[in-house]
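Colleagues,

Please find the record for the two-part complex below.
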Amino acid sequence: MKNNVLQLLFRYGSLFVIFGVILFFSLTLPHFFSYANLADILRSISIVTFVAIGVTLSLIVDGFDLSVGSTVSISTVVAASLMVWYEQPLYIVILVPLLIGAVIGCVNAFFIVKIRIPDLLATLAVMYIVSGLHKTYTSGYSIYNNMQFQDGTKAPGKFSESFLWLGQGEWLGIPIPVILLIIAVAVVHIFLTYTRFGRQMYVTGGNEEAARLSGIKVKKVRTLAYIASGMFAAFGGVLFAARIGSGQIDAGAPLLMEAVAAVFVGFSVMGAGKPNVIGTFFGAVLIGVLVNGLTMMNVQYFMHDIIKGIVLILALAVTFYYLHRTRSGKN
Amino acid sequence: MTANQETLRLTRITKSFAGIPALSEVDFTVHCGEIHALLGANGAGKSTLMKILSGAYTLDSGSITIGSQEIQMQSPSDAKRQGIHCVYQEVDTALVPQITVAENILLDRLSNREGGLWHSWGQIYQEAEAALAKLGASIDVRQKVEGLSLSEKQMILVARTLVEKAKFIIFDEPTAPLSHEETNNLFRVMKQMKEEGIGCIFISHRLPEVFEHCDRVTVMRDGKHVYTESTSRSSIDEVIGQMLGKSFDEEFPKRTVPIGEVLLKTSQLTSGNKVKQVNLEVREGEIVGVVGLVGAGKTELSNVLFGSLRSDSGHVQLRGTSLRLKDPTDAIDAGIVLVPEERRKHGIMVEDSVQHNLSLPLLKQLSRFGFVRSAMEQVHAGRLIERLGVKTSSMKQQVKFLSGGNQQKVAIGKWVETKADVFLFDEPTKGVDIGAKSDIFRLIGDLAEQGKGILYFTCEFAEAIGIADRIFVMCEGRIVKEFRQEEATQEKLLYYASAGREEQA
């Protein structure tokens, strides 16, 4: 009986909380449940979700990637600088940040898979390195259209219209980032559930030694997971730049925490009990709704961290308590 | 500490784990001033008995007395208070590597209240030095334990028992990792302790050294005490007979299969100090047993052949082609597969379904454009479940809910439809009930019939004799003897597995 309640709570608890939070804000805030606001929420969620997909992938192979936040930051300023400083065409503006994300993933994988530094420590160090790099690159300034340099000259370029369309445009009334988000979630979900490589990722994360003894190239699988994690974070950064229309310093710093919270909320959605991308999406919805609602309630932004932290610790508590109970109980 | 005129007596000790009896009514006595060897095959209950004596386990019934006084043993510190100490085989578990030799020797005192608040370095060094001097060991007590050799670490543990004024000391297979001189040195120390009136319990698999150095010998089998005699009135053959008993009536369905070409051949294969210059050959349709006691290097050898452990030197050939085995992937591609000993940890994914486990090595064949074809996967799983006789409610069932035997069938079954030529089985019947056991033997027989080569690693000698065409005996990383099936007897196998050297035959 007690176990059934626990199971029900685990299975539907997070969906219930999401629904409750939406209901609460809708009743208390007059403008919350409007199309414009909901679209705005989804728009902001799309960035978190891209970052969270990356975290999901690293978590699936039983790793962790703390460097996603600073990867967002660096790809935001690089994308901005490529337009504002160097007037590059759109495909370069998108490809170069993705490449940087892949390189960061490679570096993470090298230290974790090859040198065998524990994932949290390795990506913690890389997080600071990347964070320092992006500030050094911009000398600590944010990048905006025709920005003024210290020597008084002006930057030649502007954010291009087509780039801004990625973050601000709409198609049939649906924001472009939301469309990108849905495509990404669907593709990654299909990839993880129905392909050989997706299966190999879960197996590697479930029991690396057994996977290795089954002939899976576990090092390759883990390396690719980190590279994918870096690239998803980088694309999140590109979207961020496109949405804001400038290259903000430290844009990604709060996103790490939001993404991790989203993944762990998603852990339990529909009783998956493992990192999964559909759950991650719902987790991101919860975080997005909370941030939006709190802002509209005029809760000061520095208090948001408290709320987000509580959401994260609750999600972790439910997840680990449940996993511990079921694993020790039935084995 | 000299006059210890008491006898340690264990009477009718009974202990079971989760309803399965590990010890039933075992009697065992140690006098002061003797070296008493405790022998038995793997799983006979030696270490359970010693864990009860050292307070690590509590007994279900029975009594422990020293002299005329009955003692209550609830924890390791109770045992230590009574002067019963243990020198474990895994010396590293009992030592703190980052602190000095002296602190390790006096660790028990430093960790309990009697040690007082302050720790006087001068006194610690002095006491530690005195204890080591008594053992005739020259180790700098100010040095960290980290860099010491195994035998030096053992000396530290022995010295620890000295400063704690031990009355009885358990030596749990202390000589297994030692070289010849180191072993002799240890025996010298044990004799010295014996002269001081300390009772030593000595666990070993090397029978010759038991007969050379011990006063009495006790044999256990299947959780029972079966034999105690003074070594002068006993013999190695007698002890081996007692260890094996005559109670093996399991039937192994051995089939005659034509033996073909050489499949797998190793020459001078060496890896670390667990696999030493191994030469062996497996032919098509042949089942080759590799037997040895626990720790003889069987698991390591199977891992080297499967590429999950690197070899330092030597060659592996498959059908005459040299293989470079850097990773299990290489072995699998070449056609060598392993059913590992640690089934739940290494053989299967316990959280995953039967179907997913069975298709794991064949995902490539079961998918198109990277997408796993679910219909094909189900047909494949269904076919294997039937063929192997896996008892499961459905193919979607998580493997962790299956019995040990059925889990093993899954662990074996996933390789059956690969194109593998050589199957390595490491203790495949461990923790498997009797019905599943004969299914597994039938399966292995089927594989041999299809012309596969089979290497069967086991410490169950009876199984090897029942199933194998040829048997290699492994001891301390080396293959010490080869038997044809009809020549092999359990006595002979155990003799070579425990004597270690051919010339002692």
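The mean pLDDT of chain B is 84.

Comments are welcome before we finalize the supplementary table.
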